[in-house]
Design brief:
Largest sheet: 9 strands, antiparallel
Radius of gyration: 26 Å
Number of helices: 18
Shape: globular
Strand content: 15-25%
Bound molecules: 5-hydroxymethyl-3,4-dihydroxypiperidine
Number of strands: 31
Distance between the termini: 23 Å
Length: 736
């Protein structure tokens, strides 16, 4: 499979109206490296679009009616000025301040972004501008941008000024869309240093008191105020390259820029992306050009959002926009950690380590909620404290606790990294399980364990009793502690070293067996919660398509009193524990929840695609796959301008692995099942499992697995046990 054809994402990939939607394109073509991100803002516009992971400011949340324990402060990622901003003026100081994007090309094998613009001033004079930029994926403090200026209708002298204004920013409150960033925040320049070659400043956030250094230099010119450049001959062109440093406040500026040049950044990135595509190659047959390009793009953005260099999480929008204020949600653990566990486990480990670093905050939060033991992680956060001002669809999503437990377990199953479990993972498993024990209520009559007043992932139903997803995840969280305690004792870590004992661990385990899971005998399906199935169904056929997503058109209480789901909690549980119910029950559940789900959440369709694959509903699986894969690329939720939907992006990859290839991991064995939709003739995918790199090729007739690196892998393909090792490194199973 030749991948070259698919590795360039250009403007002509998009339907006509989207080619003109600049804020959409800013997100799509954003460059990032897990530390900071730069949107593809027009170089001559004032729009903002630089985000540093974890760099946020706060303000007091003002509640009309506040109650005990509500989140106190916002945490809003700083939307810093456009790093690419320059001012270009003619000899009369008239600026070329209108830009028309002519073409753009993102090379996903090198991470180089190229843009062509025509710039116009108010006299209608034009010049051409070509921009080439890259963000360093290894030395994650650097960003470089090269401007090539060419004459247009104007061919006289121009002057270029680098705009370095990084100081105050106030964004507007958005009252109507809770998915947008909605706080007012400020940065202040603390110290400034300028000379001909360098500009450096300390950016400081007023309330959260974070500092960061921003510095810039330029090739061969005065860094901020450039000389006039002459575009007078028709062949004349001028190229200026700026280098930006974003990082540690104590860095010496000369040191920052020592040895930095564009070619080295490109070289770093070539190595980085070669490695990525070597380890995480995904593709379909060559004739599926759009699908190939789209899946490559998705993987590209997943890597861009992450870094092996830091222990931060990944916000819902990565670093491509400020939607959801740059907050980290369960998205990371349930969608992104599974991707990285099977692609670059070091990144998965860092993401989990972030949660460990905020475990103390989680313990405090549990106490605030009146829970005497254990920890409760914040629903949405940057610094570990709860930032959700709407507890019914925020703090009440207690499932975040077992989502974190699930991702620790998943990471372990993919890596066998017991050291991580010993040092960090076990404590989190234990503290989250203790929380569930304390939170639960034992029903005296039935002897079953119940969880009242919780909100599941489906935010169109809140504060319910016994949400199926919450309960099954809590059950699993309580159960796995014993398993890990046993493994740890085998290598010399007693329960006491974690301030617990076998009695407590056994209690957690025994409680797991008692967890109540709501089931509706009449419908023969699990109920989303105790009351969901008894509510009237949402009148889908009477509601106009324009009224979706419901959250933008109805008061929450209107939505809550209906049987309507934003995303399918029961099916999500089925995708995690695929063998819990019979195929008949799963079919009924799929049909039922399909009929009451709006998919207003971008996390919904991947789950339907996975379950449809399992049920061999290949057409539907493929339909949901496409709608998921192109969700951002075709702006299917009309809000990609706020940033990319990172969990959905990882979800599309999950459809390929969990759905089309039926991947399941149990006891060091990788299970595969061919569920490839008929519309895909071929799927090729590489993953890393237990330190081995393997390539899986599937067609509608076979599954082939090849060991590319590593020693030995045990597989069960379509119920047949096989082993591949360095001697017999390939196996092909007929799956017809
Ligand atoms: O975490 C999700 C949630 O499930 C639905 N609302 C958006 C959040 C961020 O993606």
């Amino acid at each position: 499979m030749k991948n070259n054809t698919f590795s360039n994402l250009r403007l002509n990939f998009f339907p006509e109206p989207l080619r003109k939607n600049l804020s959409f394109l800013e997100s799509i073509f954003s460059l990032s490296n897990g530390k900071f991100g730069v949107r593809m803002c027009s170089p001559v516009s004032e729009s903002r679009g630089t985000f540093i992971n974890g760099f946020y400011d706060s303000k007091k949340i003002t509640y009309g009616e506040k109650a005990f324990g509500y989140a106190d402060n916002t945490q809003t990622i700083m939307n810093l000025p456009n790093l690419r901003h320059i001012r270009i003026v003619n000899t009369n100081n008239i600026s070329f301040d209108t830009s028309k994007l002519i073409d753009v090309c993102l090379n996903m094998k090198t991470g180089v972004l190229k843009e062509d613009y025509i710039l116009t001033n108010k006299l209608n004079e034009t010049i051409k501008l070509k921009v080439t930029s890259a963000i360093d994926e290894y030395k994650t403090s650097y960003y470089a941008v090269k401007y090539k200026l060419l004459p247009g209708s104007y061919n006289g002298k121009i002057k270029i000024t680098k705009i370095s204004n990084m100081d105050v920013y106030t964004n507007e409150y958005n009252y109507t869309d809770p998915r947008k960033s909605n706080s007012i925040n400020k940065t202040v320049i603390k110290k400034e240093f300028k000379n001909d070659k360098f500009y450096k400043c300390l950016i400081y956030t007023e309330k959260s008191k974070q500092f960061i250094t921003y510095a810039v230099t330029c090739d061969g010119y005065n860094v901020l105020e450039n000389q006039y450049v002459n575009l007078s001959s028709s062949k004349a062109s001028k190229t200026i390259t700026y280098y930006t440093f974003i990082g540690d406040i104590n860095q010496n500026i000369y040191h920052c820029f020592k040895n930095i040049n564009f070619e080295d950044i490109i070289l770093d990135n070539n190595n980085y992306w070669t490695n990525v595509w070597n380890n995480s190659l995904v593709g379909f047959s060559n004739d599926q050009i759009k699908l190939n390009c789209a899946i490559m793009y998705n993987i590209f953005q997943l890597y861009q959002s992450s870094s092996i260099n830091n222990q931060l999480s990944i916000s819902a929008k990565g670093l491509s926009g400020d939607g959801y204020e740059g907050h980290y949600f369960w998205d990371t653990e349930m969608y992104l950690v599974p991707f990285f566990s099977l692609n670059n486990p070091k990144i998965a480990r860092n993401l989990l380590k972030y949660r460990y670093n905020v475990l103390e905050e989680a313990k405090k939060r549990a106490r605030t909620l009146g829970i005497k033991k254990g920890a409760l992680f914040a629903w949405r956060t940057i610094n570990g404290k709860e930032a959700s001002a709407y507890y019914p669809a925020g703090t009440a999503q207690y499932h975040i606790n077992s989502d974190i437990a699930y991702s620790i377990d998943y990471y372990y199953k993919c890596t066998n990294d017991i050291k991580f479990i010993a040092k960090y993972g076990f404590e989190m498993l234990l503290e989250t399980a203790k929380f569930w024990k304390e939170y639960s209520q034992l029903d005296e009559e039935t002897g079953l364990l119940k969880f009242f007043t919780v909100t599941g992932p489906d935010e169109y139903t809140v504060l319910v009793d016994n949400d199926y997803y919450t309960n099954i995840m809590a059950k699993y969280n309580l159960e796995i502690v014993k398993n890990y305690a046993t493994r740890l004792e085998d290598i010399g870590y007693s329960p006491e070293s974690y301030h617990t004992n076998w009695q407590e661990i056994e209690e957690l385990y025994q409680l797991s067996k008692r967890v109540y899971l709501p089931y509706n005998k009449k419908k023969k399906i699990s109920s989303q919660d105790d009351s969901f199935l008894s509510k009237p169904k949402w009148p889908f056929n009477k509601v106009s398509k324009d009224n979706y997503p419901l959250l933008l058109h109805y008061h929450p209480l209107t939505i809550y009193r209906y049987q309507v789901a934003k995303q399918p909690d029961v099916l999500l549980a089925r995708s995690l524990f695929p063998d819990k119910v019979s195929t008949e029950q799963l079919k009924l559940e799929y049909e039922y929840y399909n009929s009451v789900t709006t998919h207003d959440s971008s996390l919904s369709k991947p789950i339907f695609a996975i379950i449809a694959s399992k049920l061999e509903k290949k057409e539907q699986a493929f339909k949901y796959f496409q709608e998921s894969l192109f969700l951002d690329l075709f702006n299917l939720q009309s809000n990609t301008e706020d940033g990319l939907h990172m969990a959905n992006i990882a979800g599309s990859w999950m459809i390929l692995t969990k759905g089309f290839l039926g991947i399941k991991i149990e006891k060091n064995i990788l299970y595969l099942q061919n569920n490839l939709p008929n519309k895909l003739n071929h799927l090729k995918i590489r993953i890393t499992f237990l330190n081995a790199l393997i390539e899986i090729n599937a067609s509608n007739r076979y599954i082939k697995v090849k060991l590319l690196k590593g020693e030995k892998i045990k597989l069960i393909i379509q119920k047949r046990k096989v082993i591949i090792d360095s001697k017999h490194n390939e196996v092909c199973i007929n799956t017809l």
